[in-house]
Amino acid sequence: xxxxxxxxxxxxxxxxxxxxxxxxxxxxxxxxxxxxxxxxxxxxxxxxxxxxxxxxxxxxxxxxxxxxxxxxxxxxxxxxxxxxxxxxxxxxxxxxxxxxxxxxxxxxxxxxxxxxxxxxxxxxxxxxxxxxxxxxxxxxxxxxxxxxxxxxxxxxxxxxxxxxxxxxxxxxxxxxxxxxxxxxxxxxxxxxxxxxxxxxxxxxxxxxxxxxxxxxxxxxxxxxxxxxxxxxxxxxxxxxxxxxxxxxxxxxxxxxxxxxxxxxxxxxxxxxxxxxxxxxxxxxxxxxxxxxxxxxxxxxxxxxxxxxxxxxxxxxxxxxxxxxxxxxxxxxxxxxxxxxxxxxxxxxxxxxxxxxxxxxxxxxxxxxx
Length: 369
What we know:
Helix content is 75%, strand content 1%. By secondary structure, the protein is mainly alpha-helical. Helix 2 packs across helix 15 and helix 12 packs across helix 14 (261-274). The mean pLDDT is 88.
């Protein structure tokens, strides 16, 4: 079968742009009532399905996180202490600022959650201990960061890294099967079923060598398309043949997503590479990369705005005047607003941190993590 000269490296080259695609898909998934705007046409039903499986963007994000963390660890010869410092500084300044602004807005709108609820989210325990899903991703990505140096210590010293990878995937799947039958713990399925994607990302980040001339063949393309089709077909079958209660209780709609992130990322990156010769594409990838670099802030912004909107409705609009299409249109507007706020906060916090590091370096003469 004829080889197609598509290098494998573009996953790292376009990682930020791929994260931009993932977070936009997640934003679409988190837009309530917007599906009412698409109607019952074939295109409308297709868009509703795409919106409904937008949580795949989370799996893609976990995969790309594992991929990027391993690549950075190898290149930078990072220590566990410096890794933890960088990860905490990446998450908490933006998160705490947005959280404070969100709670302040809700308080002004007369919807106060109380200091206890605020502290739960500040400390990232609202999901793990109290089964509140709003900010579940924050606590779970922090747990991934916590485990990453431990796993890498084992992974890099293992003779057969594929065996270690498969073993961890099996362990996490068994863990998910186990907690699925424990009512007090089954809310953790939204996290444990995503851990295989994170582990696969770490393995792919190790296997792909940035300076090698790799070739993507037709058979490899066909294999990845088959993985995508199998994953999406399994999702469709689960959504069509099972109840929403069973999907939440047993995490059924997350297991097929294990098949999707690597193939989705690889094929999309290869597509980006093929069309990179077009001038307009640089603008698109630059915008996607900007969105991807601030994906965490965009996620938090949308969650908080989705909380605030009902308060705005209650104050400025009478409930009996609200139509479902009007509500859907408002939440449609929330999507770009979330992106803009997330980019603004992310870029501003990044600049402030850079200025602080520069001043500390000037004062101490030593590099600051």
